[in-house]
């Protein structure tokens, strides 16, 4: 996600001026720090969600004060407690079940508040656009969990490698493609089933970035220019 900051995410934030930003998947804070600098400057708030963040959250809370909130839970447990937000960045557990239900929770928030937020998702292309990955396999209901193994993957090959390969240390679905498999599939299934008139914008580099907007969102006027001039 951080590779898209300067040319896409930052310009989109400046154009839309969100007051509350939710970030799913903080990890080492490469994007979190940048979001917090914006929030502190304009008096906005960043709510970070990560069950095991790899950054000094106490120091961040001390420095950024009310601009920062850390929720150490899985996203599907944390999101329902957040009443309203203008933008959400989704870069957590890269599988169909999690992403689809994260988006359904966003939809429920929008129904309560009357505003569908700007949604930014990482990993909409290879390797996890069409393949599930599980950080915590036991958190996914069995009927939605693909057969998986802790083995690596490579472009152009559906089955997992016997040794080595990309992300060989995490739980990857045995095969690519098919129903309810991968981040992009979850996004497409959500958009097909929602009553909101949504548009999906995609960038294909750096594992892919997807941006979901309502068709009449003010951001829809500026986002095509941002994407076309990003060079990504």
From TrEMBL:
Pfam families annotated for this entry? Methyltransf_24 (PF13578)
The superkingdom of the source organism is Bacteria
Its name, as the record gives it, is Class I SAM-dependent methyltransferase
Biological source species: Paenibacillus favisporus
